[in-house]
Write a structure and sequence with these properties.
It is built from 13 helices and 15 strands. By secondary structure, the protein is an alpha/beta fold.
Length: 377
């Protein structure tokens, strides 16, 4: 089987020749150690600084090349592609407060995280920045990315589109700089109490966008989409099972249906221990659930819902950072043995390959999956 065939077979809950391998994301620090050169793919601070310094084309060329070479080097079956900022878009460097903190002219404050190497949005702007003068065309309500925003997508499709499963997010909005933030969490949770119908309607409205985006991406040659939102803490979801069914499930079902009608599988990413809402999640129609936390019982999830919900994960991100390769091999072997029967399983980390993962652990996971994840013929 080709990697593309392997993934599509697993997502149909059929048994491929072996368990597919894929990651939601792989951070630049691990990529650099594997490929032996500087990389801007998932480049975090160094990608942001390259954009501030006007080195956009250098960064994009790295992202193109490394997306392909890393996939082939590790034998991955799935490749993530993302839009990149338009070649004519400028990102002024904010004022430096200290070595790890910046403030822009509108009052937003950003700080470097030593743990993840992200530059985080720490404080929202005091003034509203002027709107971006977007050169993109809008067609039937969908923003169509510019040619330069699609440079990584087009390159990877040209090199690997015939053989590998290429996926992206349903979004087609103008990409900016990757500033993660936790500022959304409090108002998001408050909306569950103060405006529950607004939450419900926003998820239902999103189905229209997912359908339009899925048709666009299908025409481009993309094989699948992965959307989602973070729904919980390690201790449990932000909402009750009833709230999930009332406010989230109808919209999620509509989104999955829209993607399927356009001819693409729709996978779902969420951080958090979602054990309490597994039953609802299995009714969404999503083709796979990614970022299965170590706090969730993977064997029980497979037993209860493996026939309805594809599972993408299996190896603890924490263990990938702190455990030796032999223990990673044992964990990978267990995940394969537990989840591969009947198909519907993609082997990966419990979230993504972060900056602290030793390359030998990542390689041990991939090599073990290829060795122990083979189906009988």
């Amino acid at each position: 089987m080709t990697p593309k065939e392997r993934v599509l077979t697993a997502l149909r809950h059929e048994e491929p020749d072996r368990v597919p391998l894929g990651e939601f994301a792989i951070d630049y620090a691990v990529i650099e150690k594997i490929l032996g050169r500087k990389s801007y793919l998932r480049g975090k601070r160094q990608l942001i600084e390259a954009m501030w310094e006007g080195r956009r084309d250098e960064a994009v060329e790295s992202m193109q090349r490394d997306s392909v070479e890393l996939t082939l080097e590790l034998g991955l079956d799935m490749v993530r592609v993302d839009l990149v900022p338009d070649k004519d878009r400028e990102f002024p460097r904010p004022r430096r407060i200290d070595d790890e903190t910046w403030e822009d002219e509108w009052g937003a404050v950003y700080r470097f995280s030593e743990l993840t190497h992200d530059v985080m949005l720490l404080k929202a702007p005091d003034k509203t920045p002027p709107p971006y003068e977007d050169p993109a065309e809008v067609r039937e309500g969908l923003r169509i990315p510019t040619a330069s925003e699609l440079e990584v997508v087009d390159y990877v499709l040209e090199k690997l589109g015939d053989t590998h499963f290429i996926w992206t997010s349903p979004g087609t909005w103008a990409p900016g700089l990757p500033f993660p933030s936790a500022l959304w969490v409090e108002p998001w949770i408050m909306a569950l109490v103060e405006d529950p119908q607004g939450v419900r309607q926003s998820h239902l409205r999103a189905a229209g966008h997912v359908g339009r985006a899925a048709r666009f991406w299908r025409e481009k040659g993309i094989d699948g989409l992965c959307g989602g939102e973070d729904l919980g803490f390690n201790s449990g979801p932000f909402m009750s099972p009833k709230q999930f069914r009332d406010l989230f499930l109808p919209g999620y079902q509509a989104q999955a249906q829209a993607a399927h009608e356009a001819g693409l599988p729709l996978m779902f990413h969420s951080c958090g221990n979602l054990t309490a809402i597994w039953d609802g999640l299995a009714e969404t129609g999503f083709d796979a659930y990614q970022a299965i936390q170590p706090e969730e019982d993977l064997a029980e999830l497979k037993r209860r819902h493996g026939q309805d919900l594809g599972l993408w994960g299996g190896v603890s991100c924490h263990n990938l950072v702190v455990k030796p390769p032999d223990e990673i091999r044992e964990e990978t072997k267990w995940a394969c043995e537990t989840c591969m029967p009947g198909g519907g399983f993609i082997l990966g980390s419990s979230h993504s390959i972060g900056v602290g993962v030793p390359p030998e652990n990542f390689r041990a996971m991939c090599e073990t999956a290829r060795e122990y994840g083979r189906y009988s013929t």
